[in-house]
Write a structure and sequence with these properties.
The complex is a heterodimer of chains A (about 400) and B (about 350). Chain A is of the alpha+beta class and about 400 residues long. Chain A has two domains: about 140 residues, Creatine Amidinohydrolase, Chain A, domain 1; about 230 residues, Creatinase/methionine aminopeptidase superfamily (Creatine Amidinohydrolase, Alpha-Beta Complex), CATH 3.90.230.10. Chain A has eleven helices and 21 strands. Chain A has a six-stranded mixed sheet with strand order 6-5-4-3-7-8, covered by helices on one side. In chain A, strands 16-15-17-20-21 form a five-stranded antiparallel sheet. A three-stranded antiparallel sheet of chain A has the order 9-12-13. The longest helix of chain A is centred in the middle third of the chain and has 21 residues. Chain B has about 350 residues and is of the alpha+beta class. Chain B has two domains: about 130 residues, Creatine Amidinohydrolase, Chain A, domain 1, CATH 3.40.350; about 200 residues, Alpha-Beta Complex (Creatine Amidinohydrolase), CATH 3.90.230. Chain B contains ten helices and 13 strands. In chain B, the strands form three sheets. A six-stranded mixed sheet of chain B has the order 4-3-2-1-5-6. A four-stranded antiparallel sheet of chain B has the order 10-11-12-13. In chain B, strand 5, helix 4 and strand 6 form a beta-alpha-beta unit. The longest helix of chain B is centred in the middle third of the chain and has 23 residues. Chain B is elongated. Classes of the chains: A alpha+beta (about 400), B alpha+beta (about 350). At the A-B interface, helix 3, helix 5, strand 8, helix 8 and strand 9 of A face strand 4, helix 4 and helix 7 of B.
Chain lengths: ~400, ~350
């Protein structure tokens, strides 16, 4: 069944709550606006999340090498309201793309395909997101700009349609998790949790799975866990076929794709027993971070304001040094705005929130020697604050 | 297995006069390092995630831990959000700063500029062909790993087809497949499985909510990534008993197969094999391998041979041997074959 009860509203995941023609039009308009602002005449896009953003097209989800070898290509030009799409997957072409803008796939991982793309190369100042080596060769020293500034600028603020898709992606992820949670018992394999999760997302109508589901059994201290090159907490690690034991603390992190948009789900589960008083304290401190940060999330706040609001928990910054307090989400599972990275506080000062941006907060409350709590909360920045897009409960700390 | 991969890689680097090989493609990094890092779907822009230095013979990997990474700890360099920091970590690797020729397997305009600025005396060259050549020829251990991966996919397919009955939706079959794969400890796909009702002789590229009816042909195209190795296959199954037209289709398909598959032997160009409509040849390994038309088959190459004909789609994985091929796929051809045998 594709309909799930979530609170008072029933969600039909087969009826995405958006106008796709409007979504596609708005995204190309944002790209063209960012092109103009950056002095770019044309964009050539090979990164699949960029092609999805520019065209709304779909290719089958795959391991990175197969995805690269079958990649779609998009060309966006300043003077054209529609992008050109090169794809080997006619089933994935959106109906609102003019037929004269849809072309057979170009194998840009081969010399022949790369040469064909260069024949179609737009005039003027062209920005590209990534090369294949055959493409680099075929361009033969031609000047190419970096498309990152344009794509980041266009993507960072979401339209209402985009936010609706992220909200629905998250609801689908959560619906699948409701069916995984009862499996969390002593004796169950971590990969069985993955199996139930993957099965449910496809049954419910997910477009793809985007990350090997993470069910990491957490140590009590950093030193008890896997070797850490940074000295800080190691997370995430690859899920192994381990058997859950009573008292295990499981950090859960999953993400799916729904009509081009990513979800991001994070929770902490405890196997077969109630949380201890100490674990409840960890949860309470984590929640205080979320409350403190959410209170400052509004248009005009900088990423540095969020970092300062997060403060310290158990005498340390509440996220691992190699990760972040929060990140954006869209056609990529982690994108700008990145908050609290090793780009540093100076960078965070320059990153100013605006209505329509999304911040996925993922702090940890880590009490070394006694483990910790981690979960994720997605916030959409509104005109005067923020709206949560995560609605999942905090079992076994709270169930409602 | 890893040491042999690395040695082959170092030999090719010597042949191509490459001092340092910088790999952004995960399948290439998997191959030379033997590491399992977190699996993510889809393409990723280039980042220097794995570095092979010829003078030291060392592999260095972007990873915060040695969990599932069979390398000494001093060969790990940490993750950073700052491309500048990553390039600084790269240039600090022994043997990189004084390299003359640095090969990359892909690139972005951003890293192109950063690498040229950080290593002004080095020439950046194409390393994608070098790694492709190395990966193309499988060791005996590689073949075992591929066979094991195919077996995982076969078992999961068998479970999924066990729930093929009138009323099941295409995507329920996808769900059954991924769950059965996970129950074998394999939670990463080579690609999202596709179960598609064949309509007017063709299947779709994506599974949908369409319900399978009695008598429908269903194209099942599935693949897993088991311990870093691809195992993939395709079968066309009938829901119930095959009809006359379906039996004819199967006969037509077998005729096509009998034209194509015997050509899988040393000396055949991939282009000559792929000339038939609906024939697709892909290299199988630590991820998909692109085989240009001008690649000549030789012993040790493993190919997935996909033949679509008359509405029937079957794909098997074949190891090229000295005299022909050995089929690594063991899955039966199902009701269509049974009804016409």
């Amino acid at each position: 069944m594709s309909t799930r009860e979530t609170g008072t509203a029933a969600i039909d995941f087969d009826a995405p709550p958006v106008d796709f023609a409007r979504l596609h039009h708005d995204r190309v308009a944002k790209l063209r606006g960012a092109m103009q602002a950056n002095g770019v005449d044309s964009l050539v896009l090979l990164g699949q999340s960029n092609v999805v953003y520019a065209t709304g097209a779909r290719a089958p989800a795959a391991d990175s090498s197969l995805a690269a070898h079958r990649r779609m290509v998009a060309i966006v030009e300043a003077g054209d309201a529609s992008p050109h799409l090169y794809t080997s997957f006619p089933d994935g072409v959106p109906g609102d793309l003019p037929v004269d803008h849809v072309h057979d796939g170009l194998l840009v991982e081969t010399d022949a395909g790369a040469a064909e793309l260069v024949v179609r190369w737009p005039r003027g100042r062209v920005a590209l997101d990534e090369y294949t080596m055959p493409l680099l060769r075929a361009l033969d020293g031609r000047e190419v700009l970096d498309a990152t500034a344009v794509t980041s600028a266009a993507k960072i603020v979401k339209t209402a349609d985009e936010i609706a898709l992220i909200r629905t992606a998250e609801l689908l992820n959560e619906a699948a998790m409701r069916d995984v949670e009862p499996l969390v018992q002593p004796g169950v394999h971590a990969t069985e949790l993955s199996g139930r999760f993957l099965r449910r997302i496809f049954e419910l109508g997910a477009t793809a799975n985007t990350v090997d589901p993470i069910f990491q059994l957490m140590p009590h201290s950093i030193d008890d866990g896997p070797y850490s090159a940074t000295g800080d907490l190691v997370f995430p690690t690859v899920t192994r076929d381990v058997v859950l034991q009573r008292g295990d603390v499981v950090w859960v992190d999953t993400g799916i794709n729904y009509h081009g948009y990513a979800s991001d789900f994070g929770r902490t589960w405890i196997v077969g027993q109630e949380p201890t008083a100490r674990q409840r304290d960890q949860f309470a401190r984590w929640r205080e971070v979320i409350t403190r940060v959410s209170d400052v999330v509004r248009p005009g706040a900088s990423a540095a304001d969020l970092v300062r609001a997060a403060g310290e928990v158990y005498g340390r910054r509440p996220w691992p040094a190699h990760l972040y307090l929060g990140h954006g989400i869209g056609t990529d599972s982690a994108e700008m705005p990145l908050v609290g990275t090793d780009l540093g506080l100076d960078f965070d000062e320059t990153l100013v929130l605006a209505a329509g941006m999304i911040v996925v907060l993922e702090p940890i409350a880590w009490e070394d020697g006694h483990g910790g709590f981690r979960a994720e909360e997605i916030l959409a920045v509104t005109d005067d604050g923020c709206e949560p897009l995560t609605h999942y409960h905090y079992w076994p700390f709270e169930t409602s | 297995m890893t040491n042999e991969h690395l040695q082959r890689c170092l030999d090719e680097m010597a042949r191509d006069d490459v001092d340092v090989l910088v790999l952004g493609r995960e399948a290439n990094a998997r191959y030379v390092s033997g590491a399992t890092r977190l699996w993510l779907a889809g393409t990723r822009p280039f980042g220097p995630g794995c570095v092979v230095v010829r003078s030291t013979g060392a592999v260095h990997l972007l990873s915060g831990t040695d969990d599932l990474v069979p390398l000494p700890r001093d060969r790990l360099f940490p993750m950073s959000w700052s491309p500048g920091n990553i390039v600084r970590a790269l240039t600090a690797i022994p043997g990189v700063a004084d390299a003359h020729r640095i090969a990359v397997d892909s690139l972005t305009p951003g890293f192109d500029g950063l690498l040229r600025d950080a290593l002004p005396d080095a020439r950046l060259v194409d390393g994608s062909d070098l790694v492709a050549r190395v990966r193309r020829f499988k060791t005996a251990d590689d073949v075992v790993a591929i066979r094991d991966a195919v077996a995982v996919a076969e078992h999961a397919l068998s479970c999924a087809l066990g729930s093929l009955r009138p009323g099941v939706r295409e995507r329920d079959l996808v769900g059954a497949f991924v769950e059965a794969s996970s129950e074998q400890g394999v939670t990463t796909p080579a690609f999202d499985p596709v179960f598609s009702v064949v309509v007017d002789g063709s299947a779709r590229a994506f599974a949908t909510a369409r319900t399978v009816a009695a008598g429908d042909l269903v194209d099942a195209t599935v693949g897993v990534l088991a311990h870093g190795w691809e195992g993939r296959l395709a079968r066309t199954w009938v829901c119930g008993e095959p009809g006359d037209a379906q039996r004819d289709a199967w006969r037509a398909w077998t005729n096509q197969r009998d034209r194509i598959v015997p050509l899988v032997r040393p000396g055949t160009r991939v282009g000559d094999l792929q000339c038939g409509d609906g024939v697709e040849i892909r290299g199988v390994g630590t991820g998909d391998e692109l085989l240009d038309d001008d690649v000549t088959l030789a012993p040790g190459i493993v190919v997935a041979v996909s033949i679509r004909h008359a509405g029937v789609h079957v794909e098997d994985t074949l190891l090229v041997t000295e005299t022909g091929y050995e089929r690594l796929t063991t899955f039966p051809y199902g009701p269509l074959a049974d009804a016409t045998s």
